[in-house]
Amino acid sequence: MKFIITALVLLLAYPSPSAKAEGQTLTFTDGMTSPPATLEEAAWLAGLWRGEAFGGQVEENWSPPLGDSMAGAFKLVSDGKVDFYELEVIREVGNTLILQLKHFHGDLRGWEEKDETVDFPLVKVTETALYFDGFTIERVSSDAMNMYVRIKDGDVERDVLFAYRRVK
């Protein structure tokens, strides 16, 4: 519930994303199974990325594949202060991938309950993108990527663009 409230606040506080963001995510529907995939298909994501979203600066730092996962850390900074963090993992489960994350306020109080995660099963893989349920990671070039996240506001859903550049 805290995630929904915070998402609503962010949606109301910041202008709509560009039209390019609309329709960039896919949905995992009943009866679907995730396609075969390995962490090697996400390995390009490893590294430090920065960009802008929600009227602030965003940063993601992803580890290379190790064991059965990749770990990532996200933060949104507005007016010089952290709005929120996310801890993220892309895990290899069976013969496919799942993206899981947990949100934290700027003071590290969690949004989700202790044993809960927000899970995004894999819907589709292409040479340039990983499509999770409502969450797309698109490789634009070796130094640029876009993430599109579907956010719900009541009955309205829209895709929000996070445009990143690799930090070298």
CATH architecture descriptor = Beta Barrel
What is the SS-derived class?
Answer: mainly beta
**Number of domains in the coordinates?**
1
Distance between the termini: 37 Å
- What's the CATH class, please? Mainly Beta
CA-based shape: globular
Task: Give the SSE string.
Answer: HEEEEEEEEEE
Oligomer: single chain
Strand order of the largest sheet: 1-2-3-4-5-6-7-8-9-10
Number of helices: 1
CATH topology: Lipocalin
Radius of gyration: 15 Å
Uncertain stretches: 1-19
Estimate the strand proportion: over 45%
Q: Tell me the total number of β-strands.
A: 10
Tell me about the biggest sheet? 10 strands, antiparallel, barrel
Pfam families: DUF6265
Domain DUF6265: 43-150
Protein name: DUF6265 domain-containing protein
InterPro entries: DUF6265
Describe what this molecule looks like in 3D.
The protein has about 170 residues and is mainly β. It has one domain: Beta Barrel (Lipocalin), CATH 2.40.128. The chain contains one helix and ten strands, in the order H-E-E-E-E-E-E-E-E-E-E. It has one helix at about 1-15; strands spanning about 45-55, 55-60, 70-80, 80-95, 95-105, 120-125, 130, 135-140, 145-155, 155-165. A ten-stranded antiparallel beta barrel has the order 1-2-3-4-5-6-7-8-9-10. The radius of gyration is 15 Å and the shape is globular. Residues about 1-20 have low confidence and may be disordered.
